[in-house]
Description:
GO terms for molecular function: glycerol-3-phosphate dehydrogenase (quinone) activity. The protein has helices at about 10-25, 60-65, 70-75, 75-95, 150-160, 175-180, 190-195, 200-210, 230-235, 250-265, 390, 395-410, and strands spanning about 1-10, 30, 45, 50, 55, 100, 105-110, 115-120, 120, 125-130, 140-145, 165-170, 215-220, 240-245, 270-275, 280-285, 285-295, 300-310, 320, 325, 365-370, 370-380. By secondary structure, it is α/β, with parallel strands linked by helices. It folds into two domains: about 1-40 and about 255-410, FAD/NAD(P)-binding domain, CATH 3.50.50; about 125-245, Rossmann fold, CATH 3.40.50. Strands 1, 2, 15, 16, 17, 18, 21 and 22 form an eight-stranded mixed β-sheet that branches. The protein has a four-stranded parallel β-sheet with strand order 12-11-13-14, sandwiched between helices. Helix 8 crosses helix 9 (about 230-235). The longest helix is centred in the first third of the chain and has 18 residues, at about 75-95. The structure holds flavin-adenine dinucleotide. Flavin-adenine dinucleotide binds next to helix 1, strand 2, strand 3 and helix 12.
Amino acid sequence: MKYDIVIIGGGLSGLVSGILLTKAGRKVAIVSSGHSALHFSSGSFGLFGQRDGNFVERPLEAIAKLPASHPYRKVGIDAITDYVKRVKPLFAEAGINTHGSEERNHYRLTPIGAFKPAWLTIDDYATVGKPDNLPWGKVAIINFNGYLDFYPSFIAKGLEEAGLSCSLKSFTLPELETLRKSSTEMRAANIARVIVGDVIGDVAREVNRLAGDADTVLMPAVIGLFDDEPVKLLREKVDRPLYFVSTQPMSVGGMRSQIRLRRYFKKLGGTYLLGDSVTNGVAEGDRMMKIFTVNLGDMELSADYFILASGSFFSYGIMANPVSIYEPIFGLDIKAPTTRSEWYHKDIFKDHAYMKYGVTTDDEFRVMKDGRTLDNMYAVGAVLGGCNSMKEESGAGVALMTSMKVVDNILAR
Ligand SMILES: Cc1cc2nc3c(=O)[nH]c(=O)nc-3n(C[C@H](O)[C@H](O)[C@H](O)COP(=O)(O)OP(=O)(O)OC[C@H]3O[C@@H](n4cnc5c(N)ncnc54)[C@H](O)[C@@H]3O)c2cc1C
């Protein structure tokens, strides 16, 4: 099968690359093994939230000062300033409605009741402009009986330390009792599947009853798996402001984002090979010619360009054994010491070197193998090295900005 571009990985970076290339009229296929980081998302997209442990207020100003080794520097601050403005409308086209601005970070309420900087957040999630001035008054935190991946008491502690008073309530519905029979069924995605249609009215009735004299209601973000219609309906029916707080994985908001992007890509004409894994590729000289997958067997996928969007360690885009760190599909170059003790810091909370390991690229994000650039193969997102996106809260931003840059690079050729 021949495509203009084949993308390896269907996380945020692979999907956004695929959408933009398909919109530009290219024939694109995405091959994706399975879960991506989006499925574990906080519901917020970080551009640049922290530097050396301090919160960053103005992300673009901080990005402009990053070292040359950072992927943002290869994208370039002028391109980033342009790209960031396009993300919110692009997400909205796909059906992901967000709020936030690249001019100034806002703060998301975390599952443990702390506040962290963010760039864009899914509309229904709890955020504030500044954590030192919480606008919610008395808060009712309302959970579903038996749902254990949400910790209301942690959230209450955080909010009470910030000066708010909180009440903790929970309820159940006949529809949820079937799930409760086995605690393994009482998970976010299963709850989301139940709370649709008429059940939303029943949830609203219980929430209104339990909220008492609260000014604001917070609930776990377990509603609206395929789109945000159930969320909008519930918020209309609840008689005071209602916001959602991210839960322990799986993340319903993150899964919704992945589903929306995937459906948009397919609607635009893209081919999405779900649940298939790329095993290897065949290069001739400095060009990748074709790749092979588990499900397609001998049937090759050939393309003019390839984009590696296979993620970092979490998604097996980068792997480690006791003696080396490697890129498992093509054996691409990675700059990492061979001495294992240099990969990590003994203090788990410190900055670990391995978090910055990723595939080596040239200035155009073309990958390298055995010291030579592969002319038609690019890398985007978390598979790139050069930054610790967890410490920086820059994961989504790096995925988006590098994807947009690579798409421009390919279209310019
Ligand atoms: C647990 C977790 C939570 C995070 N939460 C946030 C957050 O809330 N906000 C934020 O801004 N950032 C977050 N990040 C950072 C995250 O890395 C980026 O935001 C971004 O989502 C990365 O996207 P990606 O597409 O580059 O990689 P990934 O999301 O990792 O996607 C890579 C995809 O490639 C597929 N793949 C791998 N190997 C193959 C193969 N051989 N063949 C086919 N497919 C393959 C994987 O299955 C996966 O679907 C989080 C990261 C992790 C690990």
